[in-house]
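Can't attach files on this board, so I'm pasting raw text. These are the components:
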Amino acid sequence: MAEHQLEVMVNGQLVTAMVEPRLTLADFLRDRLRLTGTHLGCEHGVCGACTVLADGAAIRSCLVFAVQMQGVAVATVEGLTPDGGGLSDVQEAFRAEHGLQCGFCTPGFVVSVTAFLAEHPDPSTDQIRDGLSGNLCRCTGYQGIVRAVQATVRARQEARHD
Amino acid sequence: MTEQGATAGRYVGARVQRLEDPRLLAGRGRYIDDHIVPGMLHAAFVRSPVARGALARVDVATAQAMPGVAAVFTMDDFRDIFLPTFSTIAGRDAVTPPLRPLADGDVRFTGDPIVIVVAESRYLAEDAVEAVDVDLDPLEPVLDSETGLTAGILVHPETGSNLAAQISSPADDEQAFADAAHVVTETITQHRYVAVPMEGRGLVASWEPGRDELTIWAATQAPHEMRSYCARMLGLPEHRVRVVMGDVGGGFGQKMFVTREEMAVVLASYRLGRPVRWIEDRAENLLAGGHARQEQATISMATDHDGHLLAARVHHLENVGAYSVPGTGSVGGGVAAFFPGPYRLPMLSFANQAVYTNTCGRCAYRGPWLFETVAREQMMDIVARAIGMDPLSLRRANVITDDDLPYTSATGVPYERISPAKTLEQAAELIGYDSFRREQEAARAEGRYLGVGLSLYVEPIQTRGLLGSEGAILRVDPTGEITLIMGTASHGQSVETTMAQVVADVLGCDPSSIVFIQGDTAVAPWGPGTGGSKSAVIAAGAAQLAAERMREKMLQVAGHVLEVAPSDLELSGGSAHVRGDPEARLSFGQLAEAAYLNPAALPADIEPGLLVSARSAAPPLVLANACHACTVEVDVHTGLVKILRYVVSEDCGPMINPMVVEGQIAGGVAQGIGGVLLEHMVYDADGNPLTTTFMDYLLPTACEVPDVEYGHVVTPANTPGGFKGVGEGGAIGSPPAVLNAVADALASLGARITGTPLGPAQVLAALAAARTTSR
Amino acid sequence: MKAAPFEYHAPETPDEALGLLAQFGDEAKVLAGGQSLVPVLALRMARFEHLVDLNRIPALRYVQVDNDVTRVGAMTRHAAIGGSAEIRSRVPLLAEATPHIGHFQIRNRGTIGGSLSHADPGAEYPAVALALDAEIVLASARGTRTVPAAEFFTGTFTTVAEPDEVLTEARFTGRPQGCAVLELARRHGDFALAGVACAVELNSAGRIQSLRIALFGVASTPVRATAAEQAARGAAAGELDPEEVGRAALAGVSCVSDLHADAGYRERVAAHLAGQAIRQALQEARNG
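---
Top answer:
Structure tokens for the assembled complex are below.
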């Protein structure tokens, strides 16, 4: 099957590649660009471990083909991690609140939460749980993850008041 | 071994943030699917579409000719190199079905791997899988334990029977039952549900002829087990096989033992002399990764007038599938041993049958024997309601108290250092049991149905035999940096952090200064893998011992350099200094320099370098215990269950890191809640699994799991530090807590709940049955 | 879980897309949001020689109001529909249904055209279209036709659309005074085991001018409870027994049994939900 030329921004860098149409965005990021922070937990769009941002919107990268991302700006968990070491405030909160154990689902949560809070800066606990329901975790029982989101919201509110 | 007792210092006992987190949060974990071995090929399997059948013909010619295909192997291609063997951890006598990595002449469950295709990419391998032509004559399967025992259909013809194992352990209880004021009999069922780690199985196996070395990078929870197993399987000396474990995305038991697909991948690499990689996808994981939990028991309990337990009879039936994994061929022994649980039960008659069926084989899943708690705790509530006692009162009447200890159970298990009565009271208080009963009554008047469920259990931490020992190597390098090397295989249990806490307290340094290496059999001391709730017991013991030996060595060297007695020295802040004189100090860097770089200047009785090793040994049995309490509201129109509150009063002894303990419990509770209310591995009448995607196998999300509220009781174990284990407890106590709460909510309507599955349809069916019976 | 190979086409206009479908016939499949199609391809439950991606056709992405008619382009994403002020004010049932669809990550890609075309019996938008008597526009190289929602859904995952047709637009007329969407699922965001989309209009005397009830998740297509609707017509809003109407709504409906629920369960729960939805819609109509 014919390959297609793809030009896509990934974490702020322009990437050009020839891709087979059936290559998913997730596999493109992982295997071609070696951005292995985006994980495959189900490959059928339920678990959310593969979540990335496409033009700022959280999407399941296992459900789009790389070739569809022509001209799109994609951000992965690596791109959400500050350069030169350190963690984003969302990542710090996950650490402080024990929001991860095996870590496999974690990048998907970090990306989803980052996008969620951009849309909902002041969510109720119910809204937080609702916003998290598109990502599956098997280790934490979600308790630490909910706390991490709440802690991020609080910290951002305090920063705004300063 | 040092004296037992809590060694809480600056770090042990504290909620230290995890050392694993920065890399995992940044997406820089190294899971097996992230690992590249140059030249590696990719595997995919052709699997049986039927539950049972004769393999008439397998035609691989078309597949072999497809682009990018390196090889297509059947069992014929492995026959001359495959040596069936046993699991080191489970032992030679473990119940094991006839073993073959690929189907051989017949298929025995839907999903049975028949052919392994090896190609340049997974995409191409899957294309070639579709081109393999398999000629199968389907045969009638057996799918459940009862049919498995009576139908004339053999799952494994070579065994001559579908009975994988059985136990017959009667007690002399005729008189007790005859004299009893009450005898209550019920059949409790537990449905099939599965572990579902977020990362499936996976490995890259690389046999290098010429070097005669087999290296396996794997998503495993027991690298040394995999090493010895694969070595025996190929007839290789153990030390020519290396297993390396990176970050692993959960296991819950599914990655403890070597499974058939993994054997096939290793054999394929051996055959080809090239690295072969297999990353299990989710459909495979649900289909063939190992199932669990499908058991039932008919139980009779005899009590006196006041509800004191006199005797119990249990007939336990397990469906272990076709290729059950070593160690879980039968859990009857564990169920029998712990059925009495935390109660004074004078007599137990136990009979068990483990039955092969044409379904996916059973693997270890977080508390594999937990049916004893699930069944017993439901039975306690059923007995309580039958004899007109509150379930809390019945438990109070029977629970083992401090005064009873030490206590030997009816099954010969010695109980000591446990606190079930304390946790029962703490859980009851935290959930507000008495005021909840009032709330429940008021709600009933409004047509709302609330319920409370308790679950009390004793958990054995598996430390008998070779599970009772863990090793640690502690190394301070010439620049003074500390490396801890262990044979653990932590995959979410935070062992990297908790062991650093233990070492940091002894060496007086910061835990984050310690680099932790685990899971590489080339460098790590032998370990029994991570699972079975034993990390805090044996791993902490080894780390503690090694740290104490290192401390002694460091003080020796420092004493020599500073010209003081070692007993005048302390370790703190990453240096050795004279007690009371902080200026007289040596940093670890200076210490190490002295130890390594000028050995001639050391006295004869001080060995150069700073390298120690230690091995812990645990008592043969360590027991933890907990009580779960759960309140629910049941919508009698829809059958949906909403969990209102969830409380766990746990006693895992002193805690190395309370944050880690609570996280382990919360995760286990979520699996129990999911297991009861949502997760169901379903087969149709022909043996086709219907729940092989996440659309159909329903995992709980953040909307379905409540926050767990914790109470802690502390009863130290007879181990260094006194730590007990906690990994499995959450999953053990939770199913009956939820089940009992639902049963309690519906009891006033006459509905009877006797196990799982317990989806909304089953709740409505129980209510409908109650209405029919009451007419 | 990797899809079988296919040729990929990314037309930039509707005509280009229609030309490709005419050329490839049933060897081609339209790719909209991909949230339902891509899993099917990954599981190799279906395969197509050609995928025609509609995501690069800006002309299919719009919400336009022409007098009484709200026209929604097929490639308008669920997230955009949920966030659209026009939809909220003019087709509130559509806005109310949107948060029930999956999770926000799904809604960022899923489209109304895809949802209607895929015709999952448990989906929300098909029921809303049916409840509101929406019109569905199908285009092909042979021309364009408009199909009433009542005729569009013919079976599980089946519509009247031909292989060379593309759903280009959904049209909603009128604005009911009261509406409600209720559903029951095993988990938040799952396809409904039983769901109801309900719209009510009262006349100046406070009597029911129209009560429209569309059930979803219970049968092989969404279903209008026409008999129950007719019986309710003319009744005083305050005198109606919503639970009774809800039960009547299930009369004659062939509920399906599957892995997640049997027919009896669906019927029972749908009747209960219908009663609640009617009650809620009536309340809103009487208040507004």
